[in-house]
Recover the amino acids of this structure.
């Protein structure tokens, strides 16, 4: 039987096998390239909302959902029912449901978020609505830093060492800013929860 | 029959199998949420940052091996500029459908092997083959073709071939391992060690992908021992450890501890009977399900398997061992036992093929004037009847799957919503019965609805069954229907004038 099988699947030395061998080798090489790209991916989240209104001339929340901001996040808690998506950070909800918050993934040891605007703005202050505003005060992030992002790199930064305010307002003056980056420290082993981030400026 | 004709018949069977799998890509509904949320979505989430993370992934009871395999193809597609989740998902389904054709080849080799094993026990009258010359087909070709045909077009196997579940690759590995073992036992060929090592590798890979398929590995070891091929066993065992080490290494790299997901999986499913929360079924459930799938054909298959037990016992024992093991688990799903089908079809085909070959040989050896052609035609008719009964019965009862609520219409609606340029969020009634973020292909939130979420401006669209509570609530909140697929509708928030 083997001889017959060999006549259908030509032997290694057969010329007829070469195109197949090359095709398989090429596919394997392409897959390996894909595997390297997959392994190197850091899994960060990024989404840009469509702009739905023209920015007003006065001081306003630069990263409100309808201004068309880009939201980037190191991760998010994506359970079926407790789906704490990063875009909730900019939905401008005054009375949010408990699900309408951003929460970092359990395995994310260094959570961060970035809010980017479509054009440069002069930033004045940043308001963070922590989970403590609606849930247990222990959910409020204690240590974090907020850094201004500019076209040339990173601008001024504020470091918060022991926050207890459920709604924390931080002055951060930054001209021609493109956005902000917030790096948060977990309270022990707990994940980070944040309901809203407002960036006020003009 | 000449060798050339057998080759053409085999090629036609492959063509038929391919055509049916392409058809399955078009019409086969989703089978199980796991095919999306356990084996595709984790890789999609790792690459795009957006995705559902099920509790299994938070608890670390899944290996990254299969999602990583899919993820490499996804990453490659994205590097080539393809970012549409549906396109990538369809490619992955097509890729598994193509790979599942190797089962047809395994069926051919298995059927050939078992027919020869059956014929070897019979003293057949020899007919002159001098007229055929070198164009003589291999001995047992009848069973080989029959088994290949059954593996190619058996409806449940065709349907199952496109689903991205761990069962399919494991089925391919285990059936091939059994066939190679049979060849080692019957006729090891010039390089038995190489074949033994391949057998071991396939066993290891199959068991790592699906631990429940372990009874096949046990049967293979017994088969080698009974057939006095124990000297090959070390090669089998050694190479079976290679995939085990690979899976252990992947767990080490991803979960931080070697075999972490395996240990957690066994702890949850076996020691804690954790899967019971997903439903308990009686021990007879698999037998009942098989009977429902093949009310007439199962009896025929069973009878043939019993009659051919002397040659096909390793296949039958593997199927029974798997069914017995699965029956001891309270939580049962049909997909868990899908491996049983090729393990029953191949030995049955082998026996029918042997009977056909016997009749042919007797007819060829009969004296002129004794109407030998009648014997051949009876054999052919009986074989055709066997095929028609098994396949016809299976086709008539092929509908349905483990999750009846997985409607393809809901998937179509979700895909349509994901392709809308103005979408910023989707609310739906049942997150488990969608294709996740990969099918949605957008990073915007898609979550199970709550009345309050209808007022969140991010949620521009709603997916709901027509006239359902969600559909009516959405209409009251200012959504209007813009698309429908079967019983499912997509509603869009009416544009609100903004300053």
């Amino acid at each position: 039987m083997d001889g017959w099988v060999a006549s259908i699947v030509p032997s290694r030395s057969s010329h007829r096998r070469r195109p197949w061998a090359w095709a398989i080798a090429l596919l394997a090489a392409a897959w390996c390239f894909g595997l390297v790209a997959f392994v190197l991916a850091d899994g960060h989240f990024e989404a840009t909302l469509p702009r739905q209104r023209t920015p007003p001339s006065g001081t306003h929340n630069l990263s409100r959902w309808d201004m068309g901001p880009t939201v980037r996040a190191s991760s998010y808690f994506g359970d079926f029912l407790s789906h704490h998506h990063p875009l909730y950070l900019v939905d401008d909800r005054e009375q949010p449901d408990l699900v309408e918050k951003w929460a970092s993934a359990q395995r994310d040891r260094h959570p961060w978020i970035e809010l980017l605007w479509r054009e440069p703005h002069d930033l004045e202050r940043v308001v963070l609505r922590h989970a403590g505003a609606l849930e247990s005060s222990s959910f409020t992030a204690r240590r974090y830093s907020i850094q201004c992002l500019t076209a040339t790199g990173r601008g001024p930064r504020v470091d918060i060492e022991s926050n207890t305010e459920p709604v924390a307002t931080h002055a951060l003056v930054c001209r021609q800013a493109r956005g902000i980056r917030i790096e948060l420290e977990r309270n022990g082993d707990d994940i980070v929860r944040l309901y809203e981030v407002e960036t006020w400026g003009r | 029959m000449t060798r050339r004709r057998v080759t053409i018949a085999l090629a036609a069977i492959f063509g038929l199998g391919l055509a049916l799998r392409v058809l399955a890509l078009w019409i086969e509904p989703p089978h199980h949420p796991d095919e999306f949320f356990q084996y595709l979505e984790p890789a999609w989430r790792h690459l795009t940052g957006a995705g559902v993370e099920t509790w299994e992934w938070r608890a670390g009871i899944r290996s990254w091996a299969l999602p990583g395999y899919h993820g490499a193809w996804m990453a490659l597609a994205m590097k080539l500029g393809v970012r549409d989740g549906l396109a990538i998902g369809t490619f992955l389904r097509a890729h598994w459908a193509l790979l599942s054709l190797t089962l047809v080849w395994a069926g051919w080799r298995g059927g050939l092997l078992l027919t020869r094993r059956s014929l070897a026990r019979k003293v057949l009258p020899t007919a002159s083959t001098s007229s055929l010359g070198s164009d003589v087909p291999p001995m047992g070709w009848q069973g080989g073709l029959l088994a290949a045909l059954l593996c190619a077009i058996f409806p449940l196997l065709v349907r199952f071939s496109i689903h991205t579940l761990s069962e399919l690759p494991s089925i391919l590995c285990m059936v091939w391992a059994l066939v190679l073992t049979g060849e080692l036992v019957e006729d090891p060929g010039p390089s038995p060690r190489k074949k033994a090592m391949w057998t071991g590798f396939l066993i290891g890979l199959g068991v790592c992908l699906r631990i429940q398929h372990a009874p096949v590995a046990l049967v293979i070891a017994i088969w080698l021992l009974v057939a006095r091929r124990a000297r090959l066993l070390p090669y089998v065992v050694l190479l079976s450890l290679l995939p085990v080490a690979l899976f252990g290494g992947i767990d080490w790299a991803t979960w931080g501890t070697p075999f972490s997901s395996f240990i957690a999986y066994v702890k949850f499913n076996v020691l804690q009977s954790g899967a019971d929360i997903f439903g308990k079924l009686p021990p007879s459930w698999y037998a009942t399900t098989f009977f429902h799938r093949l009310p007439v054909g199962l009896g025929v298959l069973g009878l043939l398997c019993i009659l051919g037990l002397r040659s096909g016992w390793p296949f039958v024992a593997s199927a029974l061992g798997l069914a017995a093991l699965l029956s001891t688990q309270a939580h049962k799903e049909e997909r868990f036992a899908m491996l049983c089908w090729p393990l029953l079809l191949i030995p049955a085909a082998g026996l029918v093929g042997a009977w056909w070959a016997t009749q042919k040989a007797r007819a060829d050896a009969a004296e002129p004037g004794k109407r030998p052609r009648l014997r051949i035609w009876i054999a052919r008719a009986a074989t055709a009847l066997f095929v028609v009964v098994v396949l016809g019965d299976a086709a008539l009862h092929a509908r349905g799957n483990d999750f009846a609520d997985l409607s393809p219409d809901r998937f179509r609606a979700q895909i349509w919503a994901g392709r809308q340029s103005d979408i910023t969020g989707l609310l739906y009634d049942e997150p488990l019965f969608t294709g996740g973020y990969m099918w949605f292909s957008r990073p915007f939130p898609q979550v199970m609805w709550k009345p309050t979420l209808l007022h969140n401006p991010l949620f521009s669209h709603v997916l709901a069954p027509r006239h359902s509570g969600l559909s009516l609530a959405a209409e009251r909140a200012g959504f209007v229907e813009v698309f429908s697929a079967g019983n499912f509708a997509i509603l869009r928030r009416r544009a609100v004038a903004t300053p």
